[in-house]
Amino acid sequence: MTNTNQSTMRRAAVLVAGSWGTALASVLANNGYEVLLWTRSEEQAEGINRSRENSKFLPGVKLPDTIRATTDLKQALQEAELALFVAPSGAMREVAKQAAPYLSPDTLVVHATKGFETDTLKRMTTVLSEELERPLEQLVVLSGPSHAEEVIRKQPTTVVVASANLQAAEQAQDALMNTDFRVYTNPDVVGVEVAGAIKNIIALGAGLTDGLNFGDNAKAALLTRGLAEIGRLGTAMGANPLTFAGLAGVGDLVVTCTSKHSRNWRAGYMLADGTPLEEVLSRMGMVVEGVRTTRAAFELAKQYDVEMPITFQLYEVLFANKAPRTAVEHLMGRLRTHEIEEIG
């Protein structure tokens, strides 16, 4: 698609320039979009434009020429027919608030962030709806098994876009889909968002079990019961249970819990030897959504009165100084009992 004249190219804005935002910007650029990648950092913007590479988050991969980085939010959103929000969950409200004055009513709004707002326990579509003053039905969420490190290198990836508005979901599908990046639609926004958020908690647990050398059997149990936790909370919040058997559910859960690309898995692995959470996050140098999500899910489980033993044990490790080995041993003991009770 390099033969398209830039003056007639479709325009997209991607907010912000982390690893996932940069990878999705690359997908859009490969599909014929002129992409403005917004970042707060002048140094990062200049570096991307000069070297054609996001050296901080995705070093060694050249970006298409039709991606430009900017710190000017108005410039980024001007004439954009698609605005893709990929801010961390803790920053989403502020980014949306800043973007709202510059968004055209005709701009399709998609987000690709997996998490809840910790203070309010709200999903990202709700946050965007409030700050952008748009009906929930106009918003789209992108999720599924998709490491930025693989997407940016055009390795085969399949994701889902969800919206209550099929036309909006199909618009997002058309914008993003190509031979390397397959996109399905799904009407279940709640299910897709809950699955994408909670799987990060389970990935922290998977990293812990691997760091403690508990083996594959334990991790298989963790993933299986983790999927049950996702399903319990999701259905209590109004999701379609079938969503959890799809890409946003079991697909994303498997990839996040079994790959060293996963920030959450790596964080859990480092926590296993007793490294303090603050040190782990400092060494990661990137947002680990599972940490914030554990706090939010702990409160959501109480609010909706659902049993989430993995989440509760990880909460104890992260925020109550519980020894990781003790937590996992308690969890595995509980899992055995819980499985027998359910079968019985």
From TrEMBL:
Which annotated residues bind NADPH?
S19, W20, R40, K114, A148, R263, V287, E289
Q: Catalytic residues?
A: K199 (proton acceptor)
Instruction: Just give the chief location class.
Output: cytoplasm
EC class name = oxidoreductase
Can you give the residue ranges of the Glycerol-3-phosphate dehydrogenase NAD-dependent C-terminal domain?
188-329
Q: Which gene encodes it?
A: gpsA
**The organism of origin for this protein:** Paenibacillus prosopidis
Q: Which PANTHER family match?
A: GLYCEROL-3-PHOSPHATE DEHYDROGENASE, GLYCEROL-3-PHOSPHATE DEHYDROGENASE [NAD(+)] 2, CHLOROPLASTIC
| Annotated protein name in UniProt | Glycerol-3-phosphate dehydrogenase [NAD(P)+]
> What are the binding positions for sn-glycerol 3-phosphate in this chain?
K114, G144, S146, K199, D252, S262, R263, N264
Q: Name one Pfam family in it.
A: NAD_Gly3P_dh_N
Name where it's found. Answer: Cytoplasm
Give any GO molecular function from the UniProt entry: NAD binding
**Residue ranges constituting the Glycerol-3-phosphate dehydrogenase NAD-dependent N-terminal domain according to the UniProt record:** 13-168
Residues annotated for substrate binding in this entry: K114, R263, N264
Q: Which residues bind NAD(+)?
A: A148, R263
Q: Which HAMAP family match?
A: NAD_Glyc3P_dehydrog
